[in-house]
Each structure stands twice: as structure tokens, then as C-alpha cells.
């Protein structure tokens, strides 16, 4: 029986366990990436492990999230990360060089390799035929130290692409269609593998748009084959030597099949406030808009920008619309400057932003009150834009540009003939903003620059004999990490200061939570389905840890967040009978006796609701290795015990 591409790469990297679906496997990691908002913690954790130099083939630290230096904090963090990189063998992509996923695709991604990154959109690398997975900072620290990365051996879903996109219909519409069909929970425990004739019609940046936003399916990752188109892209990046052809076997067996005829797709938008709330432009109608933001790791490639420039050429942005554009990397921005497209954008009235995450993470460009914002990004969770009642629609760059001119949601197919957009034969290559580390023999001469914003991470304790704590908060379904630990320009600078950032924990849901949790000393959070979807930020586990949260009891978890809870030593519990969720109220005293003993005996735990006087069952769906981590009080304690 033939193998899927996913199985081929995973089994070539297997260092622990067996390739049995649903079981935990450990894989060797060839490359890691971090960004600044998760990076400070990841590097503090790496330092705590005491490994002198990274053991991966390539590790890169990017500065792209916290670039609004509104006070000393972010600049301190950048200098800290830069100095750690220099000393410990990591390449450092300086602020201004671009968004981690875009730059990694351009300069470092290699087909067939494994990559983990402390950012949930790391699967962008799947556009180059990598197994690229988003993870918590601690997992990335362990991988840098040469440790394996553990995942559940995934099911593999085949997405068979046929046909060819119609003019002005975009790669973004492909992933929106997948989200429409599978939903934000549809990818859990799965890798989405793209195959079929239609694959050949998509360039590497288009493939990367699709794998990038595959994160919104909750999937472990998404992957495209590595083919002639991949070779041409790598050649144009001066990296043809990194090319290897890779594909699934013709008789590979998949766990599920989705068929998409590219020719039948139409322009679409994900409506507020979920990436799977997808409608066609026709269904939404010519809605009046206030803002358009083009950029983010989903849609900021040169090809995207050239399409936008073509649409804007000789026109003016509608007087009621603010248009911002953030090209994804220095390479993209500079090529636009050299070929004149940047001037076209400026002429049309676009507000050009630096090559960074910017508005995507709420770093500026919050829309007006109740404002309707079209964004080429990947997430439209409530409040993420920085405006609580902002209405964010996720769309393709083509649709965004056409609408910015018209002032209303506009089908880009009304633009008429589309010229053929081709990737350049040679990209503009200048890696002068990527600082290499010093040689190993010189590492002692590098001083680590630790500003006052950098505080040690909270210490977790070994699992208690009994957890006896009140429910400090009860929340509903699809709680995102943006609810648990919001981002934005005010809060992001506190990413290396857990005591301070914890003040904002769950503030979107309940402003009193911080105070209440601290007063209670220890507590349990109760939630619904798909708890912790979205970002990989381990702060969504570290802040609750700091606030004394001992367990999180929900209907189901998102993958990265559950791993982050275990890494932090917080017990992740799932209702065996979902109806028990309705019987618990905030304030109820919950009691779990002999926790470790119960865990050793199986995967079900008995919980008492002392306030209401009933007992119910909760599942702990973790591996044997993760149980050991829970007994030890998290991954760091576990790693120390076992090294
Ligand atoms: C995001 O898109 O939510 C982020 C900001 O890139 C996060 C990482 C973070 O919270 O720092 C992610 O996707 O993992
Ligand atoms: Fe940055 Fe947005 Fe991409 Fe996250 S999703 S890495 S914030 S551009």
C-alpha cells in the first residue's frame, strides 16, 4: 500500500513511537522558527534548559509582531532575542525584514524537512512541501535543544484539486471554501494534503496562502507536493540546491477525501467573527465598507502585491475608505519599490505600513466604532482588530483592492480581463537583515541583554494530591486564545512579563477575572467545545498558571492550546458527558481526589461538585509521556528530571 506525502516525511523523521493513527509519535525537528511575541519566553525556556548551542539544522528568530515601540519594552525584547541568537547559534531576522512565515518561505524553507514554530501559522511552510507545525514556545525550546517534538499521529485528508481558478478568483477563495466545508474544528487531529491536477496551476505563494490558513481548520498542518513549480520558486530565490521532488504515492490511502473543482469557485469572504463563517460575495451583497487592510502572513507575497498594484493603477481609494498595505517582507517591499508598483499604491492613496504583522495582531489600524473592515488576513475573532465592535471580513487581495476603490464590497470579476501575473525568474536577494550567530568558540564573548521588561516565567509545581478549587470562570464554545490572553498594541509588550500580562487574562470575557482568580488563589476554568482555538501563544496557559488555575474543564480542546496547558502543568479535563457542563456554575466548588492515582489507573477522572452535591466523570486525553509531565508539574520540570 502506498504512502501519503505526510506519512513519508513523518516516518523519515520518526524517533519515538509507531506510525499508528491516533497514537503519540515523536519526530526529529530539522528547523525551528520563533517570532518576538512568543520568542522571549521560548528563549528564556531554552536558556533554562542549559543547552549551549541549538542542535537543529536551522533555527531562526524573527521580529515581526511587536514592532510598534511605544515604550522601552518591545525594543528590550528585540535586543534580548538578538543576543540569545548570537550566542546560541540562531539566525536573527531583524525588525523590518518581514513577517516570519513569508521570510521563512523565501529564504529558509526546504521541501521534505520538518519545521516547528512558536506561531500557529507555521504550516505556511507546507506550501513548499514541508511538514511545518505550530507549537508552544516550550516545545520549540526543547526542539532547539535536540529533543523530539510530539504529536498525535494524524489522519490524512486528501483535498483533490481539479480545474483552474477563474480570473480574479484567488488561492484565498480555495481555503475559504475548505473552511466553509470543514469548519474551524474540521481539521483537528488531521493533516490536509493537497493533490490533483489543480495543484500544478498554483504557484508556491498561492499554495502557502492555503496551508497558512489551514491553521484555522484546527489542523495539525497542511501540505502540498514539491514539484517543478517548487523548483522554479527555489531557483528564483537562489536556492535550487534545496529542491527535492516529493509527492504521495499514486495508491496512497487517505482517511477522508474532499474534492474541489477550482474552476467552480467564486470570490468569497469569511464574515464576522469566525474564519469559517464563509459566504460568497454575491450572498453578502454590495455592503458599504470603512477600511481595507492588505497584508499578513496569508497574503503579502510579491504576486499578491502585484495584483493589488495592477488594480489600483491610476485610481484613487474611495473617500470613505482607509486602505493600508503591508508587504510581507523586505524582499517584497524592495521589489515593489524597484519595479514601480509601490509608487502606484502610494499614488492611489494607500497607507504603506512596514513589513510586519501590524493590524493583523491589533498593532495599529483598529477600525472605527462598528466599522466594517475587509482584511486579507486569516483571523477575524471578535475584538482582535482592537475595536470591540469592529466587523472584520477576511478576503483575497484582489477583492480587497477592488472594494477599496469602490467603497463597497465588490466582486473582483467586475474588473474585466485579468493579465497573466508571473513570479519573477529571480527574486531580489539580500539577506543583510538576517544576522548569523557567532561561532561556537566565540559564544562566551556574547553578553545577553536583559532589559527590565524581562521577568522569569512562573514556576509550576508537581501535581497536588487533591485539587479542591472553585470554578473561577465559566465560558462557552469556541473560546480563542485571543479571549484568554488578548494581544494588541497595549498588551503585546508585556509578553515577557507574565505577572503584568496576567492582568489582562480573559478581560474580553470578564474584566473581573484577574482580581477574582488572584483572590481565590487556586481555581478551575470551565469551558465549551474547541476551547483555546487560534494562536499558539503559551501565555494563554502561563497567565492562568500564574493566577493559580489548576485545571481547565471543557467539552473539547484545540490541539496547540491543550499541549501548552500540559507543558505548563495545568490539568486538561474534558466532560465525559457534555450535559454535565450545564450543571456547573461559576463559583461552584470542584474537588478531584487522588489525582495522580486516578491518572495512573486510566484516562477518566472523577470530579465532585461539592456545591451542587453530585459527581461526574472527566476524560484526560493525553499520552503516557504527557501524564509524566503533569505529575512533574510541566515540561520544564519533566525535562530537568529526565536529563
Ligand atoms: C496570531 O496570529 O494570533 C499570532 C499572534 O501570530 C499568534 C502567536 C502569538 O500569539 O504570539 C499565533 O498565531 O500563534
Ligand atoms: Fe503575524 Fe497575523 Fe500571521 Fe499571526 S496571523 S503571524 S499576527 S501576520
From TrEMBL:
Keyword Lyase: yes
Domain of life, per lineage: Bacteria
Cofactor dependence: [4Fe-4S] cluster
Aconitase/3-isopropylmalate dehydratase large subunit alpha/beta/alpha domain boundaries: 7-284
EC number: 4.2.1.3
GO biological process assignments: tricarboxylic acid cycle
Keywords assigned by UniProt, alphabetized: Iron, Iron-sulfur, Lyase, Metal-binding
The keyword tRNA processing is assigned to this record: no
Record InterPro entries: Acnase/IPM_dHydase_lsu_aba_1/3 (IPR015931), Acoase/IPM_deHydtase_lsu_aba (IPR001030), Aconitase/3IPM_dehydase_swvl (IPR015928), Aconitase/IPM_isomerase (IPR050926), Aconitase_4Fe-4S_BS (IPR018136), Aconitase_4Fe-4S_dom (IPR036008), Aconitase_put (IPR006250), AconitaseA/IPMdHydase_ssu_swvl (IPR000573)
Gene Ontology terms for molecular function: 4 iron, 4 sulfur cluster binding; aconitate hydratase activity; metal ion binding
Pfam families, sorted: Aconitase (PF00330), Aconitase_C (PF00694)
Positions of the Aconitase A/isopropylmalate dehydratase small subunit swivel domain: 522-577
SUPFAM superfamilies (UniProt xref): Aconitase iron-sulfur domain, LeuD/IlvD-like
PROSITE patterns: ACONITASE_1, ACONITASE_2
Cellular-component GO terms for this entry: cytosol
Family: Belongs to the aconitase/IPM isomerase family.
Assembly and binders: Monomer.
This protein's name: Aconitate hydratase
Amino acid at each position: 500500500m502506498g504512502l501519503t506525502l505526510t506519512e513519508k516525511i513523518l516516518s523519515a523523521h520518526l524517533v519515538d513511537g509507531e506510525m499508528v493513527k491516533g497514537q503519540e509519535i515523536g519526530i526529529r525537528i530539522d528547523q525551528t522558527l520563533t517570532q518576538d511575541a512568543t520568542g522571549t519566553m521560548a528563549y528564556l525556556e531554552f536558556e533554562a534548559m542549559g543547552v549551549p548551542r541549538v542542535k537543529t539544522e536551522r533555527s531562526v528568530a524573527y521580529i515581526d509582531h511587536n514592532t510598534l515601540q511605544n515604550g522601552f519594552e518591545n525594543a528590550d525584547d528585540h535586543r534580548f532575542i538578538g543576543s540569545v541568537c548570537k550566542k546560541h547559534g540562531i539566525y536573527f531576522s531583524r525588525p523590518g525584514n518581514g513577517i516570519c512565515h513569508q521570510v521563512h518561505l523565501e529564504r529558509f524553507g526546504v521541501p521534505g524537512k520538518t519545521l516547528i514554530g512558536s506561531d500557529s501559522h507555521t504550516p505556511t511552510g507546507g506550501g513548499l512541501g514541508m511538514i511545518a507545525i505550530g507549537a508552544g514556545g516550550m516545545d520549540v525550546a526543547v526542539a532547539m535543544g535536540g529533543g523530539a517534538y510530539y504529536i498525535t499521529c494524524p489522519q490524512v485528508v486528501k483535498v483533490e484539486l481539479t480545474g483552474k481558478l477563474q480570473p480574479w478568483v484567488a488561492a484565498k477563495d480555495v481555503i475559504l471554501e475548505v473552511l466553509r466545508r470543514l469548519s474551524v474544528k474540521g481539521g483537528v487531529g488531521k493533516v490536509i494534503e493537497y493533490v490533483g491536477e489543480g495543484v500544478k496551476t498554483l504557484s508556491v505563494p498561492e499554495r502557502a496562502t492555503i496551508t497558512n490558513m489551514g491553521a484555522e481548520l484546527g489542523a495539525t498542518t497542511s501540505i502540498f507536493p514539491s514539484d517543478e513549480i517548487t523548483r522554479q520558486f527555489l531557483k528564483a530565490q537562489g536556492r535550487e540546491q534545496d529542491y527535492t521532488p516529493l509527492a504521495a504515492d499514486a495508491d496512497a490511502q487517505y482517511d477522508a477525501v474532499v474534492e474541489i473543482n477550482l474552476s467552480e469557485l467564486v470570490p468569497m469572504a469569511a464574515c464576522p467573527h469566525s474564519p469559517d463563517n464563509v459566504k460568497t460575495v454575491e450572498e453578502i451583497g454590495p455592503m458599504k465598507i470603512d477600511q481595507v487592510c492588505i497584508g499578513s502572513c496569508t497574503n503579502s507575497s510579491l504576486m499578491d502585491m502585484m495584483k493589488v498594484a495592477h488594480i489600483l493603477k491610476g485610481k484613487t481609494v474611495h473617500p470613505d475608505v482607509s486602505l493600508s498595505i503591508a508587504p510581507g517582507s523586505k524582499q517584497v517591499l524592495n521589489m515593489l519599490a524597484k519595479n514601480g508598483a509601490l509608487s502606484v499604491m502610494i499614488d492611489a492613496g494607500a497607507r504603506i505600513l512596514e513589513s510586519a504583522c501590524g493590524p493583523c495582531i491589533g498593532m495599529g489600524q483598529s477600525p472605527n466604532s462598528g466599522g466594517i473592515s475587509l482584511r486579507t488576513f486569516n483571523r477575524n475573532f471578535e475584538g482582535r482588530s482592537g475595536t470591540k465592535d469592529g466587523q472584520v471580513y477576511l478576503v483575497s487581495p484582489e477583492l480587497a483592492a477592488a472594494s477599496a476603490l469602490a467603497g463597497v464590497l465588490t466582486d473582483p470579476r467586475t474588473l474585466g480581463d485579468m493579465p497573466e501575473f508571473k513570479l519573477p525568474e529571480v527574486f531580489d536577494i539580500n539577506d543583510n537583515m538576517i544576522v548569523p550567530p557567532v561561532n561556537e568558540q566565540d559564544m562566551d564573548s556574547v553578553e545577553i541583554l536583559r532589559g527590565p521588561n524581562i521577568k522569569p516565567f512562573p514556576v509550576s509545581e508537581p501535581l497536588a494530591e487533591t485539587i479542591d478549587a472553585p470554578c473561577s470562570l465559566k465560558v462557552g464554545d469556541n473560546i480563542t486564545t485571543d479571549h484568554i490572553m488578548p494581544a494588541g498594541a497595549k498588551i503585546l509588550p508585556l509578553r515577557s512579563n507574565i505577572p503584568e500580562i496576567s492582568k489582562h487574562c480573559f478581560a474580553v470575557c470578564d474584566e473581573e477575572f484577574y482580581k477574582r482568580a488572584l483572590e481565590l488563589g487556586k481555581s478551575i476554568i470551565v469551558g465549551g467545545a474547541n476551547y483555546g482555538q487560534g494562536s499558539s501563544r503559551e501565555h494563554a496557559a502561563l497567565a492562568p498558571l500564574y493566577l493559580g488555575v489548576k485545571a481547565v474543564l471543557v467539552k473539547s480542546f484545540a490541539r496547540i492550546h491543550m499541549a501548552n496547558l500540559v507543558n505548563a502543568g495545568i490539568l486538561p479535563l474534558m466532560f465525559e458527558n457534555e450535559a454535565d457542563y450545564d450543571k456547573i456554575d461559576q463559583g461552584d466548588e470542584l474537588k478531584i481526589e487522588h489525582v495522580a492515582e486516578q491518572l495512573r489507573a486510566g484516562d477518566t477522572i472523577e470530579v465532585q461538585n461539592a456545591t451542587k452535591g453530585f459527581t461526574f466523570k472527566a476524560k484526560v486525553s493525553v499520552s503516557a509521556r504527557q501524564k509524566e509531565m503533569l505529575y512533574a508539574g510541566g515540561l520544564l520540570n519533566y525535562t530537568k528530571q529526565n536529563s
